[in-house]
Amino acid sequence: MRASLPPEVPMSTFSDAQISAATAVAGLVDTELQASAITRVQCCARMAGTFLFRSYSHALSPQAPGTVLRTPVAGHSGPALVGLLETTLQRLGITVDSSLVNMEKLKAGEDEIGFLAAQKLLEPLLTPVKEKHGLSYEAAAQACAVATALLIKKEEKQLDVETAVSRAIYAFIEGSKTVPAPLTQKH
Q1: Domain containing 69: what range?
Q2: Does 5 fall in a domain?
Q3: H or E, element range at 146
Q4: Is 182 within the bounds of a domain?
Q5: Number of domains the chain is built from
Q6: What's the CA gap between 118 and 43, in Å, rounded?
Q7: Which tens digit of pLDDT belongs to each residue from 27-54?
Q8: DSSP 8-state secondary structure symbol assigned to residue 66
Q9: CA distances from 4 to 55, 68, 102, 156, 183 (A)
Q10: Domain for residue 6, yes or no?
Q11: I need a surface site. Which of 114, 115, 120, 172 has the fewest CB within 10 A?
C-alpha cells in the first residue's frame, strides 16, 4: 500500500510555543530513549498520535489500553500531522520521494519498543513540556510531528528518509487510533 502525502500545511498557524515544545520534545526523545534512530523517530510520531487521541478521547466510551478504534476525528486530523511532517522536512531541506513512502517499509526492521511501552516511557517526559508551553493535546500532537521531522533531520545520514517517513506516518495513525495507557499521576 502506497501512502500519499497530503498538501502542504501552512506553518504560519504554528505558534512559538509549539516550536519551542517541538525542539524540547526532539531533545528529550533523542537523549532519553535508548534505541536506534528509526525507533526514536517512530516513538516520537507515536506520541504525536497519542496526544491527538487524547484530544478527543473524552468523547469516547472507555476501552482497554491497546484497543484500536476507528474514529472520524483520527481520520480527519491524522493526515494533518503527515502534512506538517512533510512541510517541516521541506523547510529543513530534506526532499522526500513520495513514490518511495509506503507501508511495506515497516516490514524492513524490528519494532524495538512496542506502542504501549513507548507511550508509558515517553508520555511522563513529554507531558511536562506540553504543560510548560500551555499546549492543548492537539497542539502538542502537532509539536510532536515537528519534533519527528527534527529527529529525521538530525539522523538523515544514518536513516533511509523514506523509510523513516513511512514509519512516522504509520506511527501517527497507530497513535491516533490506539487507546493509550491511563495517565499516571506524579507523586
Answers
A1: 11-177
A2: no
A3: helix 137-154
A4: no
A5: 1
A6: 6
A7: 999 999 989 999 999 999 999 999 999 9
A8: T
A9: 25, 22, 8, 21, 33
A10: no
A11: 114
How far is the CA of 186 from the CAs of 97, 128, 171, in angstroms?
43, 11, 26
Q: Which three cell numbers stand for residue 155?
A: 539522523
Residue 144 lies in a domain: yes
The 3-state DSSP class for residue 1 equals: coil
Amino acid identity of residue 89, one-letter, is: L
At 14, the amino acid letter reads F
Strand, helix or coil for residue 105: helix
Amino acid at 28: L
Q: Phi and psi for 182 in degrees, rounded to 5?
A: -60, 150
The three cell numbers of residue 95 are 526532499
Whole-number Å distance between alpha carbons of 137 and 57: 10
Q: Which residues of 108-140 are buried (b: 16+ CB within 10 A; e: fewer)?
A: eeeebbebbebbbbbbebbbebbeebebebbbb
What distance, in Å, lies between the first and last C-alpha atoms of the chain? 45
Give the integer Cα–Cα distance in Å for 111 and 170.
12
pLDDT confidence bin for 19, thresholds 50/70/90: very high
Query: Does this model's pTM top 0.85?
Result: yes
